Amino acid sequence: MKKLREATKEDQWAMQVFLRQANISTIGLEEKIEDYIILEEEETGICGTIGIEKVDKDGLLRSLVIGPSVKQMHLLQMFEHTQQHARRKELDRLFLVTNKNDYIQFFELLGFFPQEIHNVPKKITQSPHLKETLEQQTCTFMMCKL
C-alpha cells in the first residue's frame, strides 16, 4: 500500500539515494527537505518525490521522480498534496519546468498552463536548480495559480 506524506530530516539519506538513482540533483535538499512530498510503499520505501523550492510568494516544483510502480492516480494525489502544502505555506503560484511535451496536457489538467519565459519571475529563472536544467534541454515553463 502506498502512502503520501511530507518529508522530514530523517528522510534525507533515503531521498538522496532515490534522487541520485534517477540522476536528479540533490543540491539544496538538506535545507528544503520539509518542502518535499514523499510517496512510499511499506515494503520498499520511497517510490515517488516532488519538492517545492520557495521563492518569495512563488514556488518552483522540482525533483519530480516516480518509480515504475507509481500509477497515474498516485501522481495526481502527489500533485494535489503538493498544491495543498503550497497553500499552507501561503504561496500564490507554483511553477514547473518540463522537457517532456507528452506531459504538458497532463499538467494542464492539474491547473498548470504554459508560460513564456519572459513572464516567469527572474528569481524563479535564476534558481540554481533550474539553471542546471535549462542548460541541458529545451524546456517548457508552466504556472498554476493557487
Automatic annotation (TrEMBL):
Entries under Gene3D superfamilies matching the protein: 3.40.630.30
Protein known as: N-acetylglutamate synthase-like GNAT family acetyltransferase
